[in-house]
Amino acid sequence: MSDNSQIAALESRLADLEKRLTVREDELDIRKLQHLYGYLIDKCMYNETVDLFTDDGEVRFFGGVWKGKEGVRRLYVERFQKRFTYGNNGPIDGFLLDHPQLQDIINIQPDGVTALGRARSMMQAGRHKDYEGDAPHLKARQWWEGGIYENTYKKVDGVWRMHILNYMPIWHADFESGWANTPHEYVPFPKVTYPEDPTGPDELIKDHWLWPTHKLNAFHMKHPVTGEEMVAQRWQGDIDRENARA
């Protein structure tokens, strides 16, 4: 092999290594972003949570879509902050939220500035009996929640940010009675949009569900071995129950 050929081969190998390194660094940066989101939500630091999003970002949550930075702030600050912590941007005594971010799978897209990710959250939450408020949602209680993220991230000015946070709560359970006794629609889905509901979503999501209904949340990626779409079969008994309730 000539010197020129060797140099060309080394340059090609170096370019490939640089590309692979950039992808790995991007994956790590997005994992840090997702995990930081969990820490901020745990401590009710909602202003800082909003700052994680792109200006044109959105949150898809619990049957609703909150669009743009204004919509994202309406959800986290106007809805969550006022409901959970009396408008305080930070934790308050007697109120617990834990959102571990688990099993994250990040896929950087070919453009290098968009990424798709799937992760899981397993939440424990509650309000202590000595710190009750007057409203029904401020009374002492303790519950579990499990959900799946299918998020989109964007790199803006060299920094990865949340673009679409698509969090789908899968199941809830009161601590005392457990998930075998969870009622249908444990938490009511939004029925009214903004501005009729001042903290409501800009749009409603039609295909939403909660345990004990149980469906597959679509994967953003194909099967890594077969290259096929991962699609779950729907059991006929579940279809019959859905039709009977309709």
From TrEMBL:
Native source species: Novosphingobium jiangmenense
Transmembrane region(s): none
Report any Pfam family annotated for this entry: SnoaL_4
Give the protein name, as stated in the record: Nuclear transport factor 2 family protein
All copies of domain SnoaL-like, residue ranges = 25-163
Against SUPFAM superfamilies, the record matches this protein to: NTF2-like (SSF54427)
